[in-house]
Specification:
The complex is a heterodimer of chains A (75) and B (442).
Chain A lengths: L1 H10 L1 E3 L13 H4 L6 H36 L1
Chain B lengths: L3 E6 L9 E7 L2 H12 L2 H9 L2 H14 L4 H25 L3 H9 L1 H32 L4 H16 L4 H14 L2 H8 L4 H9 L10 H14 L2 H14 L6 H31 L7 H12 L1 H34 L13 H19 L5 H27 L2 H4 L6 H26 L8
Antiparallel strand pairs in B: 1-2
Helix pairs in contact in B: 2-8, 2-12, 2-13, 2-15, 3-11, 3-13, 4-10, 4-11, 4-12, 4-13, 4-17, 5-6, 5-15, 6-7, 6-14, 6-15, 6-16, 6-17, 7-16, 9-13, 9-15, 11-19, 12-15, 13-14, 14-15, 15-16, 17-19
The chains are: A mainly alpha (75), B mainly alpha (442).
Amino acid sequence: MRKELEATKKNHFVVIHPLDDLPEQKVDTDSLGPMAMTRSVRFSLLSLRGYLIVICLLVVYHVVGLATGLAHHTH
Amino acid sequence: MTNKVLLEPAAGAGTEVTPVRGRIVKSKWAHNLLTFLAVLGPGLIVMVADNDAGAVSTYSQAGAQYGTHLLWIVLLLLPVTYFIQEMVVRLGIATGKGHAAMIYQRFGRWWGLFSLADLELVNFLTLVTEFAAIALALNKLGIDPRLGVPLVAVGLMIMAITGSYRRWERTVVFLCVLDLAWLAIAFRLHPGMGELAKGALLPSMPAGGLTPDLMFLVIAIVGTTVAPWQLFFQQSCIADKRLRFADVKWARLDTFVGACITITVAACMMIAGNASHLRGFTFTDPAQMAVDLGSFAGGAIRAGVLLLMINAAVLGATAISLSSAWAYGEVRGWPHSLQLPIRKAPGFYAVYALCVAAAAGIVLIPGAPLQLIILGVQVLAGVMLPSAIIFLQLLLNDKELLGQYANKPWNNIVNWTIIIVLFALSLILAAQVAAPGLFPAG
């Protein structure tokens, strides 16, 4: 049976849907751990974190203001 | 061409035997075509679903206010959206994991949880806008939203809970194909071909110059074409479909085809907006635009635009809810696959169902602050996009992780250019929403 299949495959092409195929060996991300970063990358990410915290606080402040205004308007 | 199904034991002796199902074809051409069709899905869906209810509104408003003047910006966004999503393709295939899981593993808990929280929030708010659009369109079709919206929500749940990724994908690809009806609508509205070519190929400034209104509409167009949820969705989708290293080129083609379709459909929405403007109608929302178009182009156009609006919202809703459910499952370590039945992935399906049900429920509450929600979507997406694509860029330069699939120098030049432009636009948008007095109204 296997020999027959091999012979068939030599003269033909086989299409296999990804979900019908055997699971493939992927990069083992669990063993890699956190990414090694240069000092400049680490500093940039720290700056980004600061920016995001500030902008989120501004947004919350603005949304609370809008929601309060909206509530007054409804009443 | 003779096709037959091949079944063979594929695993080695002594291990559990897993059957591999294949199709034998005689020509290389047929092999390539069928392999592409087997891989087709994640790229097409992420791109077409990006033209969701918010996009219909933004593009038709752009057409109604500025005619075909902004078509070149939409065309310019084709390579932008393709290059960003192409990175996701490589990352998804190489790791077999979703974007949220990668951020959590490689950048630590703080960034992992921040990205997840922001994604879940902005996705939920976007989902509310999808259902708001469905309610609006149903209303104009004469269907009571109190009946129609829950039915759509149930339909969305049934689509996902069948325990078969393939069944979900086929249904969604069918909805993506329906989206092409925008081409027929645009053609029926008889746009001037010369004007279209000029608007698409010759960058020009609309009359009145660069006003704050124009600037924010451009930001909205960019924001609706490149959205954070797309990164998470496509990577998780690729992981769920178990795409292989050999599929990279086909997954790239899938993404490119999707990008071409989404940009073409976006242009058609602009043409529709422009057509209503040329007849003297003022744009308020896409459902009203459908009614306006119907008054001179016929009832079929009216019904067509309203149905396409619902289709866009349904596509957006399923993709966005799934990106939320996949991301949550990845970070929590829960089973998270459309291939699993409900009993094996209860948390994953519960997040999906909860997102859909809560968003549909909010829309049905009389006096819900929808305007505030739309504003929230814009600003949170603006806040999230730069960090999301910076992580993507860092991950794609991680040679330890990706090896030969890591970015090449030319990838980095293109991508950093895109990131700088998007960052600048996001900053302007976030600043405007956080401090509305910053830019005077035009």
